[in-house]
Write a structure and sequence with these properties.
This protein has about 200 residues and is of the alpha/beta class. The protein has a single domain (about 5-190), classed as Maf protein. The chain is about 30% helix and about 25% strand. The protein has a seven-stranded mixed sheet with strand order 2-1-3-4-5-6-7. Strand 6 and strand 7 (about 160-165) form a beta hairpin. Helix 1 crosses helix 6 and helix 5 (about 170-175) packs across helix 6 (about 175-190). The chain is globular.
């Protein structure tokens, strides 16, 4: 079965849309924001996992517009915090204060115990049901904010000797958790299109 050349992403976040558009562009798929598709909904993300939240968002937008829809839920899982903030990453601290709060919580945590991972689940939904794709980016939490190319926790998330916010868009797309999940989605859609 051929997929449509339009796909709605259940978000209005410009950064997420740019990443999805860049990765799916070779398939000739136009990725619309939910606003562009005419979906005016903000479903309550009350799931206990990234997958549950992604399904909630995808289903709400799909029901509103009737076009194949993707939604992601992602977050930062810090080992020393027992996996927090996890599914609560977006609500962990007031916008713009996430890094400060995280660095404060980890101020006495030594080098070897600062492991962390960005995790993402993308839900794709169309008339035949839904499919999930996951991605992760392993790293650690630094001691200060560095870089200006990212958002959220990127300025404190270390990949090697640089933060995610110090990487170019191309470098970040190649290793990011959302990028990994989007590449899984890309392969799924390419196979469905018989390419």
């Amino acid at each position: 079965m051929k997929t449509t050349n339009k796909l709605v992403m259940a978000t209005n976040n410009a950064n997420k849309l740019r990443e999805a558009r860049e990765i799916l562009a070779p398939l000739g798929i136009e990725v619309l924001s939910q606003r562009e598709a005419g979906a005016d909904c903000e479903p309550d993300e009350n799931g206990s996992t990234f997958a549950e939240n992604a399904i909630i968002k995808a289903a709400a937008v799909y029901d509103a517009v009737g076009l194949p829809t993707i939604a992601d839920d992602s977050g930062l899982c810090v080992e020393a915090l027992g996996g927090r903030p996890g599914v609560h990453s977006a609500r962990y601290a007031p916008k713009g204060e996430e890094c400060e709060k995280l660095l404060g919580e980890l101020k006495d945590v030594p080098d070897g115990e600062r492991g962390a991972a960005f995790r993402c689940t993308i839900c794709y939904i169309d008339e035949s049901g839904h499919t999930e794709f996951t991605g992760a980016c392993e790293g650690s939490i630094g001691y200060e904010q560095r870089g200006s190319n990212g958002f959220g926790y990127d300025p404190v998330f270390m990949v090697g000797d640089r933060t995610m916010a110090e990487l170019s868009a191309e470098e970040k797309n190649s290793i990011s958790h959302r990028g990994a999940a989007l590449r899984e989605l890309y392969r799924f859609l390419r196979e469905r299109n018989g390419e």
